[in-house]
Each structure stands twice: as C-alpha cells, then as structure tokens.
Specification:
Layout lengths: L3 E6 L3 H15 L4 E5 L2 H13 L3 E7 L8 H11 L4 E6 L4 H11 L1 E6 L4 H14 L1
Parallel strand pairs: 1-2, 1-3, 3-4, 4-5
Amino acid sequence: MANKAILCVDDEKIILNSLKSQLRKNFGPAYMYEMAENAEEAMEVIEKLVAGGVEILIIVSDWLMPGIKGDEFLIQVHKRFPRIVKVMLTGQANEEAVRRATDEADLFAHISKPWNEDDLVNVIRTGLERL
C-alpha cells in the first residue's frame, strides 16, 4: 500500500467523488486518496495518517465549508505541517481569502470551480515536483 497521500476536503460528496476519480485515473496506485467533508474531519484524517506513518503530500481544499473556512484550515495545517503542498479549489473564495492563504499558508495554487481535469492534474503534478 502507498505510504504517501493526497487529501481532498469539500463539503459536497459529489465533488469529493469526482476528485478521487480524477486523481486515481491520472496518478494510479502510487498514492492514497483520502477524503474529508469538513476541516475538523480533515484534521482527524491528517492525525490518523501521520500516526500511521503516511506522508501527506498535497491537500486540495474547498474554501466555503461549514465551520472553518478553507483559508483558515490551510493556515492551521501549514503551522503544523509546512511541507504539505496546499491547493484551494473553490468557486466562492474572495481575493482576500486567497491572498491570506498565500501569505500565511504558502498556498501553492488556486483553482476555480468548475475545474478542468487537465488543470487539476497539472497543478497536482507540479505540486508533487515541488516536494
């Protein structure tokens, strides 16, 4: 089993299913593909993976979610795990949220919804090369 993971966070299951399908199709079995429906669940997934010796390489997060917004979530992740590549995938984030995530969470990329699969794959591939 792969010991490297890509984590996707979005409050819409249909989005998570699409992301998982597209990532699996393009990157195959080299990575684990973990999904979470909100920031709290994502932090639990992160803790479980890290405790199990799995390295989280990339987080793709929505911005508008119940509870903590995506920029705040990515900032919290960055403080504990600065090496994780962070991508925001959203149709809702304003420029201030993207700027804040860029400045305080080292946001790697911002992709607008609806996204193009090729754009997503290119961003993930480029993010992986950054590691």
